[in-house]
Amino acid sequence: MPEITRDEVAHLANLARIDLDDAELDHLAPQLSVILESVASINGVAGDDVPPTSHALPLTHVFRDDVVTPGLTAEQALSGAPAVDQQRFSVPRILGDEQ
Amino acid sequence: MITLRNTAAEMAQALADSTVTSVELTQLHLDRIAAVDGAVHAFLHVDCEGALAQAAASDARRAAGQPLSALDGVPIAVKDVLATEGLPTTCGSKILEGWIPPYDATVVVRLKAAGLPILGKTNMDEFAMGSSTEHSAYGPTHNPWDLDRIPGGSGGGSAAAVAAFEAPLAIGTDTGGSIRQPGAVTGTVGVKPTYGGVSRYGLVALANSLDQAGPVTRTVLDSALLHDVIGGHDPRDSTSIDQPWPSFTDAARAGASGDMTGLKIGVITELAGDGWQDGVMARFQESVDLLVKAGAEVVEVSCPSFVHALAAYYLILPAEASSNLAKFDAMRYGLRVVPEGDPSAEDVMRASRDAGFGDEVKRRIILGTYALSSGYYDAYYGQAQKVRTLISRDFAAAFEQVDVLVSPTAPTTAFKLGEKLDDPIAMYLNDLATIPANLAGVPGISVPSGLADEDGLPAGFQILAPALEDERLYRVGAALEALLAQEWGAPLLDKAPALEETR
Amino acid sequence: MTDTLLTFEESLEKFDPAMGLEVHVELNTNSKMFCGCPTEFGAEPNTQVCPTCLGLPGAMPVVNRIAVESAMRIGLALNCDIAEWCRFARKNYFYPDMPKNFQTSQYDEPIAFDGHMDVNVPTEDGGIEVVRVEIERAHMEEDTGKSLHVGGATGRIHGADYSLVDYNRAGIPLIEIVTRPIMGMRENAPAVAKAYVAQLRELIVALGVSDARMDQGSIRADVNLSLSPAGDGGLGTRTETKNVNSLRSVERAVRYEMQRHAAILSGAAGGDRTILQETRHWHEDTGVTTSGREKSDAEDYRYFPEPDLVPVAPSREWVDQLRGTLPENPTAKRSRLQAEWGFSDLDMRDTIGAGAFGLVEETILAGASPQVARKWWLSELARRANDTGTDIAELGVTPADVVAVQALIDAGSLNDKLARQVFEGLYAAEGTAAEIVEKRGLAIVSDDGALSAAIDNAIEAFPDVADKIRDGKVAAAGALIGAVMKEMRGQADAGRVRELILDKLT
User: Fold this and answer.
1) Cβ–Cβ contacts within 10 Å for residue A75, how many?
2) Which of C57, C63, C411, C41 is nearest to B238 (CA)?
3) Residue B356 near residue B90, CB atoms below 8 Å
4) Taking CA atoms, what residue in A is nearest to C300?
5) Residue C285 burial by Cβ neighbours in a 10 Å radius (0-12, 13-18, 19+)
6) Is the ipTM of this complex over 0.90?
7) C217: closest CA among C174, C165, C158, C171?
8) CA distances (Å), C180 to each of B399, C116, C221, C225, in order?
9) Is residue C505 within a helix (H) or strand (E), and if so which, with residue range?
10) Residue in B22, B58, B158, B178 annotated catalytic
11) Would you call C94 and B349 a contact, using CB atoms and an 8 Å cutoff?
């Protein structure tokens, strides 16, 4: 039975970029363990011969033509931004690498 | 004389007959909202000015003999998970407080194109995660049948608005039952169309492969009228079905005759037993008996994989949601919390997401992150996708034998606010009967089946049809509704206690 | 902090290099990968965005058909199999220039896979070796936005106070082409890497699917490199060097990382002789790589199939139809053109080595003779590229410019020496060849009056030379021609000057 530790929850919160404090970790870790325990029943239910379903209806071949359609103005695009400078989204200093 | 208690179809007829104007009708509902929504809290945002302007435009079209649709001028409420240009869209979350989208969801575009004035945005569990609307960051919605009880969720706001006569029509979204379960516990009608039947463009995704928008109304015919307006192919949604649909309005009108001769109904073995409230089961059985009396044939059908549906759902949903909700990072829109010191963008993301998301959202994001992590993918997400296949196969086998499948919509009537808030598993069990349809993409409707004896609260009757056969929901739903109305002598909502009107 | 390096030769004595190249090609579709926003380079910030590419809540993607076709054509041109059924997947990681905090990409189901390219590699000994580079996959994905880093000393990401993000580039279609490890190349490894990227670029140009401008980032290369003990045959720990945005840099980056790895593995750099698996950044200006920040979660991208898109299942008819649109196979094309142009093997080697194969071809197609195209690209322009460390394709001189310059020479308006000054003007982006001739006053003086005066001056200055010519020693005319050319500051046709001198003196 999978047990999700407090450290694992902290690691996952880090991956998900949520700054959980100690109280939240204490609160959430046991709840997650219970949930995980109940969903773990799914293990082994379907064998290797069962294909996965990612879409309920098997559509394929859905494309758009390569034509330009009207988008947003810069003003609209920036309308919800917490901070704007030089018609750009102003964000705090970025750590790490250019991707 | 049109009142709040008329159906949307009757209101549309009155507009057509010029016995009421859209401005009058819209004002009537805005007044009702002002009078009762303090107690119900179905709405997060009411747009009086906008709704009245749209109503006036509708009246002008009507006067010129150019109504846009059968529902032109009938006001509607929209769940706050659909983007509305110029109207706040929060998804019940602090992280989107004050966000005003620069665009309309396709469903909203279609409502506007059909001339329905939009009254406002309805309350919901944060990002549609929940079955009680208690996870709204803006406070819960109260069930009009008993203000101490939950209205269901996640779309408790839309269901309560319709049940409390604050709106004749509403839009909901259903990922695991969020239209049907609130319908059941508020004594209203809710339809989850076939996946791909209604555009998801502009619907803030919870679980993209499960989400579907649909009608929330007081009658089956009203749902059909609304479905005809919002449904159909949308090139902006790659998962939208590109084929013509029949008129659901026609199907509902045909069904209302009540003749069920030749219909084969399957009762799902797995959706009964322990944990199913007696009063809910009693009303369910009565409804089945009525359908049989009207000519239907009933058989019991086993769908053995349904017992794994809940587990598959609570892996697929959090996985997709954890990725969908990553965009809420305080960079481009929404809440930005800047911690002390010299924070980096990452620090701001972490702090904002911690402050902006509620507990249930955090639980599911972390669960989903776990389910997708390398090393766990096959055991969890991969396995859940295979269980989907098994559930689809169960449906396929069942629909070989019967035309529609039926079950109670939810295992219980509305529980008390706060009762299950800190017990996620108990909360998740509310969706036991509704989830399989989402996993397989098939359509479902919940129709009121009466009041449970032990608490006098509404129960719902769920009808499921094969994918693309939404028409059957309306035919059978309208028949059951007509047969029950004959028994009761009045609509179920007439039995709801009157809400105190304040001004 | 400077890396300790072994020399290139030392690194080869001890180690064998293995390389992997990941090349991102930005497609030149009219609209983005998943929405109808335009893709033009250089627009005002945040003017080519919509709810979808801005990642607004609720917005959804729809796949651009031409982007899929371009991906398949690239795959087919690289001799890949085309998937009968494949999906897009979400690559989840947080970064401010990525609007959704996931990149819509492809994971274990690429549209094209298992291909190869036969690369013509100019070798150290003056020949051309054909090296088969195996292609693992080519897949479709979307580009990110662009950040401007404000404050701090350098305008670079480190030390910046804050950043400004423009999402115009977000969602532009990219094709990522990944090779299998390229091994056994030894001292030719840097040249192979460069030749592969150069030939891939030419292929992309021939397919017409991208602007293929490395300087604008429409082709970007990542270089994976590892060393293993010489003769060992295994694969060592690799580093991934990003940001390698010119052909010359591809070669230099491979060479640099070979030398750096060798120093670490041999112990010359101190430490525990282990290579850290990491991202490195190439610095064009200083010619070194630096370490990217280590991220503990960098590898856990939590890929899963993109649920907002349906599978791409290209029919075999569609694939065959696209196969019919492919340009010629590069090796066959090289042989054909070498024969057509009358180039020697050495000419071909130099042409390819200079990265000028496509440019020479285009110049000839634009009307120049093979000799003329070779003359300019392999002398003046190749030298200039080499001297300034610029890719020859990015000097600011196009095949059409070369044709225009040669036309001026053929018309007698320029000589070779003046033409070089016209090229100077083209490097400096002073305008077209004709405009530069005008602005710089470079045209040959064909006014016999002016020439005549200059000749008279020369005869006066060198009377004994003039006498020799009068005596029939015509070969002496050279001295007088030189003097005249000097006075005319080169702007004269030496042939005409000679005629006039002989007219006067014989």
Assistant:
1) 12
2) C63
3) no
4) A15
5) exposed
6) yes
7) C174
8) 49, 9, 15, 12
9) helix C494-505
10) B178
11) yes
Chain C residues in contact with B201 (beta carbon < 8 A):
58-60
Residue for token pair 């944060």:
B126
Q: Does A52 touch chain B (CB under 8 A)?
A: yes
Q: Looking at the complex, report in whole angstroms how far the Cα of residue B27 sits from the nearest Cα belonging to chain A.
A: 31
Which residues in chain C touch residue B83, judged by CB atoms under 8 angstroms apart? 51, 56-58
DSSP state letters, C182-239: EES-GGGHHHHHHHHHHHHHHHHHHHT-S---GGGTSEEEEEEEEEEETT-------E
Smallest CA–CA distance, residue A94 to chain B, in Å, is 5
Catalytic-role residue among B79, B94, B192, B420: B79
Closest CA to C246 of C292, C296, C285, C290: C285
- Does the distance separating the beta carbons of C60 and B236 come in below 8 Å? yes
**Looking at residue B193, what DSSP letter applies?**
P
The 10 Å Cβ neighbour count of residue C456 is: 12
Supply the angle between the helices B220-230 and B248-255 in degrees, to the nearest 10. 170
Quote the DSSP letter at residue C81.
E
Binning chain B into helix, strand and coil, the percentages to the nearest 5 are 45, 15, 45
Asked if residue B255 lies in contact with residue B248, where contact means CB atoms within 8 angstroms, the answer is no
Q: Which two tokens stand for residue B210?
A: 């499960």
Chains that touch A (3 or more CB pairs under 8 A): B, C
* A70 burial type by CB count under 10 A (0-12 exposed, 13-18 middle, 19+ buried): exposed
**Per-residue pLDDT tens digits of chain C, which is 506 residues long:** 688 999 999 999 999 999 999 999 999 999 999 999 999 988 999 999 999 999 999 999 999 999 999 999 999 999 999 999 999 999 999 999 999 999 999 999 999 999 999 998 987 777 788 999 999 999 999 999 999 988 875 556 667 889 999 999 999 999 999 999 999 999 999 999 999 999 999 899 889 999 988 888 899 999 999 999 998 888 899 999 998 989 999 999 999 999 999 999 999 988 899 998 889 999 988 999 998 755 444 568 999 999 999 999 999 999 999 999 998 877 788 889 999 999 998 888 889 888 898 899 999 999 999 999 999 999 899 999 888 888 888 888 999 999 999 998 988 888 888 899 899 999 999 989 889 988 888 877 767 778 888 888 888 888 888 888 888 888 888 888 888 888 888 788 888 888 888 888 87
What gap in Å lies between CA C489 and CA B210, rounded to an integer? 80
Tell me whether residues A71 and C50 touch, CB distance under 8 A: yes
- Of C411, C357, C13, C31, residue with least CA distance to C198: C357
Tell me how far apart the alpha carbons of residues B83 and B79 are, in angstroms, rounded to a whole number.
Answer: 9
Task: Let me know if B112 is a catalytic residue.
Answer: no
pTM of the model as a whole: 0.89
Contact C165 B331 (CB under 8 A): yes
What amino acid is encoded at B304 in this protein? P
Considering only CB atoms, B440 lies closest to which of A13, A46, A56, namely: A56
Dist. CA C462–CA A91, nearest whole Å: 75
Give catalytic status of residue B386 as yes or no.
no
Angle between the N-to-C axes of helices B309-324 and B359-372, in degrees from 0 to 180, rounded to the nearest 10: 100
